Amino acid sequence: EGKAVTPKGSKKKKVEGVSKGKEEKRKIIVVLQKAALETVKTKKGYELVCADSHKSILAKLKRNASEYRPDMHQCLLTLLDSPLNKAGLLKIYVETLNNQIIDVNPSLRIPRTYSRFAGLMVQLLHKLKIRAVGSSEVLMKMIKRPITQHLPAGAYKIGTSNKGKLVDMRDYIPTIKCDSRPIVFAVGAMAHGQATVPWQETCIAVSQYALSGSVALGRIMNSFENYWNIL
């Protein structure tokens, strides 16, 4: 099973050229949508359901195997590795297909291999929280619904879809007042479909092409890093 550890010497970096008051208002919140996280008991014990390993089980349950791909793992790697996260300006939540909500600590070092990541998720789903090795720090935990009660007041909430309004992030970011209020993005952590949610205030497309969740997130993270001069 994977182990969660806190990175050594990890410190919040101050964004260059930003006053403390303004920096505190700057926050990007990502809510990963429709993540397929379920466990199944096999001869090896409990495992995270995966399209490659559990096709027969998914067929018996009449589930769409394409929904159980490792998209969430890829999305979390993109987010947690981003300079935006390392600068202390990113918060991550995950909503699953079963309407569970996961709070992800920005200091989590996600396992690089899918097998270890799957082991970590099995622990989370059964124990409801994951602590750092040798510490009481909680790195992931299940929290109460709805997600809206965990979003800051005054945040601007944006859904994403390839059918949304096509925007160039370089031009779009200056229009959404991200220096004075948190910005929330709902992004799909699934193979297909749209990350549209009831609480969104607008819906955008960040490319003229259909992108994976990980690639779309990379484009969003990089755009804010450039706008806030995070190198």
Strand-and-helix sequence, N→C?
Answer: HEEEHHHEEHEEEHEEH
Largest sheet: 8 strands, mixed
Shape: globular
Mean of residue pLDDT? Answer: 86
Q: How many beta strands in the DSSP annotation?
A: 10
Features:
single chain; alpha/beta; 8-stranded mixed sheet; two-stranded antiparallel sheet
Concise summary:
This protein is α/β, with parallel strands linked by helices and 231 residues long.
Overview of the molecule:
With 231 residues, the chain is α/β, with parallel strands linked by helices. It is built from 7 helices and 10 strands. The chain has helices spanning 20-25, 55-60, 71-80, 83-86, 114-127, 169-172, 213-227; strands at residues 28-35, 39-42, 45-48, 90-96, 101-104, 129-131, 138-143, 156-166, 183-188, 202-205. An 8-stranded mixed beta sheet has the order 6-7-5-4-1-9-8-10. A hairpin with a 4-residue loop joins strand 4 and strand 5 (101-104). Helix 3 (71-80) runs parallel beside helix 7 (213-227). Residues 6-14 have low confidence and may be disordered.
